[in-house]
């Protein structure tokens, strides 16, 4: 009996742990809500690239605050190698090496700054060189910069900040010649095949020929064997040639090499005096010649009288090396250096007929002082032709610089219009590159005109009549390319008091035979001469509400070859699914290759292999990297950037539809908590701007965003977030927002899962204005945050956007504010749309945020609203992050704003304790010392 009992107990002892294990395996993982502390856990992929052979993918995983790393992944073996703290990553054209700088640890840098260490005492970057064959990394300390040839492998050049690179005359270091930005640094040329190196002293700038044939550099020289000047090092022969011998005080700029690696040009200032008027020279050298010579200066025929060669224009060769483009400029206005500062008059004269208003002039002053006018030198005849001038200041050449004609653009007549019509107009001219002669093509064009790849045509979208035009240089004919087509090539949903913008274009087909244009959905093939009928290449886009767009796989592609398949992106407007399709000639419809409930972003095709690198994302799925073949077959996920996401409560996103009070069908996105219970009542926050519904599948990783409620953060903490689309009626932007948003909110309340007494609303800038307006019309919302608002359109109309110097007038008459008239034509609309005048109607507690360095919306607009609420004794707070622009940029400020905004909504929508800053404010005596974030007992 005893033996039997023991055996039963033994069985129990064996069985119980096994069954317990089975039960534990079925226990669901307990997830936690996101908090502000989660920001540091999330990584971003800020660099991603395939090697040319498609065998490796290189990408970074970087936290927002902290040290990241670069990963080198072998796609066939699925092995990974990584290097910490890499930046400025470049891959060699031969797929054998990657080069990058390695930063010091962020914590150590922070600590040294706390110790107030000088710049020269701070640790320097190192150079990292990863070998894809040996999978090893070479690290070189104290590297300042590096470069590799764009289209060749095997070579790398880097500058060293090591003090050992200073002059040594055999008797120790020279105290008179230190390495510095002024004197230059050692330049080390490294042969990546055998590891050998060659050093050049006191180099100030350097450049590789794209094809890897040579290295060009300028040196200030040393005290011994290296003379100051410009040098060419032939990478094949190993011979270094001094192409120009100069003086240590000479200044050189803009090292330029032609595509063949046989010609160089640079700008030289060889005047060693202290003359205020500098006279730069354009220097030129060709392989096989002796020294570089002056190709052009102020005395050269073709340079306008009293003009100079510009020191602010980088000379560049045409692709075939037959032309050299350069800049010229009138002699600058010089200051009287005999006057003391207190003797100088500093006054601005604001003339009513200035082409640019004075604040914009101030923002443009450096650009204007450095302004260059395009000229071209024929390198065979040495004839210089001036192309642009103060009358036709902008001249555009084709990408390869080989065309006979250029495009001139003159907007002088219309510059005053910028004050109230920011898109304005311009006149178009043909410019002959052989003579500089110009002829008018078109007057008062409202659109961005461009040259065709071979410069046989000028083409542009005219927003006034939503049509595409082309001008054929040879025949002189201008053709409306889309006049007979029964679809719009302008934005069909435009609700601005201005002409609609275009949908863009894919490009030109071979030999400039046709132009591929976009309507809302499809791709159209049109004849630039207007002789052949247009053809819709994607034949089912509009019928299926599917948008097709061309994906350019070759970054150097000039023409689209329609005899070959085209890869197209696909977006389904109905359900927001996306993907890719293949179009082939004579096909009835594009063939879908991949399509799903995601957003896709094609990053690149490997240059020498049929591999594609892309991302895929939706609300739940981070945009990790994928690779696939050219037909999106055999897709493979490459990265898993944020596996910790599975530890947190997330949520879902879905489309909601309703009708506005104007009976317009609308869409919006509703974000729900992960464990959403339809029988439960949830607090809800509305966030919006204009239209977001097409971003349904966008991922929102935890990060301290600058000006909006973080959708993921809030739904993780049991909020609903509703993002409604808004459409506008000209003259009534505030009412339009109310009419769009309110029925969407009440529709969701009617579903039964929204706590109608705990609904908040939040917006910034344009949506901040709309929020303030809506609060004057309803008391439905229990709390509201509005950032960088326009409170008073009558005063904002006459304001300045200080970041650009532009007048704010255009915004009200033509663009986002949508009033469609001047203050004097429609004064009541300015008042009716200004929440300031109806602030007495607001009953909702209001959190404002407006920073004192806001260059978009003058911060006095926020002050006007704050003072109105204060005078009316209504609960209001205003956050001003000192020195910050339109939104907090500094990371600590962004975190602080997100923290305060969530505390604000938690208090009003969840009955959480009030934080100290809300109860008593934050006195100026405590600013920067206390934050008042502690929660108080109810």
From TrEMBL:
EC class (word): hydrolase
Region (Disordered): 158-178
UniProt entry keywords in alphabetical sequence: Hydrolase, Signal
Cleaved signal peptide residues: 1-20
GO molecular function, one term: hydrolase activity
Listed SUPFAM superfamilies: alpha/beta-Hydrolases (SSF53474), DPP6 N-terminal domain-like (SSF82171)
Composition-biased stretches (Polar residues): 159-171
InterPro entries: AB_hydrolase_fold, Peptidase_S9_cat, Serine_Prot_S9B/DPPIV
EC number, UniProt record: 3.4.-.-
A UniProt-annotated Pfam family: Peptidase_S9
Domain Peptidase S9 prolyl oligopeptidase catalytic: 735-911
UniProt name for this protein: Alpha/beta hydrolase family protein
